Amino acid sequence: MRILLLGYGKMGKTIERIAIERGHSIAGKIDVQNRHEMDALAAADVDVAIEFSAPEAAYDNITYCLKRGWPIVSGTTGWLEHRSEIENLCMQQQGAFFYASNYSIGVNLFFRLNRQLARLMKGQAYRTSMTEIHHIHKLDAPSGTAITLAEGIAAENSSQKGWKLAPEEEDGFVQIEAKRLGEVPGTHIVRYESEVDTIEITHTAHTRAGFALGAVISAEWLPGKTGVFGMDDLLEDLD
Ligand SMILES: NC(=O)C1=CN([C@@H]2O[C@H](COP(=O)(O)OP(=O)(O)OC[C@H]3O[C@@H](n4cnc5c(N)ncnc54)[C@H](OP(=O)(O)O)[C@@H]3O)[C@@H](O)[C@H]2O)C=CC1
Ligand SMILES: O=C(O)C1=N[C@H](C(=O)O)C[C@H](O)C1
């Protein structure tokens, strides 16, 4: 497949390496300086686009690809207030849009474990909180993954209404502490605390390769489909 990379930073470069290892070619590497190069590409030059850019850039990048008729896999976090506009555009254009706040297969198993634990903890007297730790270059907080985890807890337990970013806290909201340390690729801890004990589950990414591999597998899966998709659709198909 010819893959267009929108965003050629830490993730774009890791995705390039894994895509080439899996036999794909790179149709273009787009960042802030060379966006005009996309206009020179013919529709047929690109089989699928993979977008890992910046919160303020994702909406325009995804819109551009949908209007060009290119299936698009996006992993950028921090822009999801515009998600429904993108989903509407995707339906209007009869395009293909794939989004995940985290493409790692391990994290997606962790999402399922998180929901299972939330079901068990329903009605129990525990305070729910989360810590996410990322590298100092990260622009958004809390992480997209932490938000997905908090949404998973709220979906399983109606006494949880959402999340608050620490130091803010409120009963019925999962408090998320966002730490920025060195070059940490991504650690997420979900915690339940009572007077007498603490239960924690943790996912620790050792490198970015897990995120990048998941994005490339999603890009291999998406072309030829119409609609809005996420990791559950992919994993169901692979199961
Ligand atoms: N869903 C997932 O599994 C994962 C998601 N992410 C998310 O992916 C995003 C990117 O992460 P990462 O690669 O670490 O970040 P980097 O800052 O390393 O790279 C971002 C790249 O995007 C480019 N960029 C910025 N604006 C635009 C634009 N308008 N058009 C095209 N490119 C643009 C930057 O260009 P320049 O350098 O010129 O500014 C840079 O090359 C973040 O939102 C992060 O949270 C990260 C890991 C996993
Ligand atoms: O910015 C990052 O690096 C990461 N961002 C994603 C997020 O916000 O959840 C996924 C991963 O944790 C790495």
Automatic annotation (TrEMBL):
Its EC number is 1.17.1.8. (S)-2,3,4,5-tetrahydrodipicolinate binds at residues 135, 144-145. It comes from the Bacteria. Its main location: cytoplasm. NADP(+) binds at residue 35. The active site is at 134 (proton donor/acceptor), 138 (proton donor). Residues 106-235 form the Dihydrodipicolinate reductase C-terminal domain. Transmembrane segments: none annotated. NAD(+) binds at residues 75-77, 100-103. It is found in: Cytoplasm. Keywords: Amino-acid biosynthesis, Cytoplasm, Diaminopimelate biosynthesis, Lysine biosynthesis, NAD, NADP, Oxidoreductase. It is an enzyme of class 1 (oxidoreductase). The keyword Oxidoreductase applies. Pathway: Amino-acid biosynthesis; L-lysine biosynthesis via DAP pathway; (S)-tetrahydrodipicolinate from L-aspartate: step 4/4. Residues 1-103 form the Dihydrodipicolinate reductase N-terminal domain. Catalyzes the conversion of 4-hydroxy-tetrahydrodipicolinate (HTPA) to tetrahydrodipicolinate. NCBIfam families: dapB. Homotetramer. HAMAP family: DapB. This is 4-hydroxy-tetrahydrodipicolinate reductase. It comes from Dyadobacter linearis.
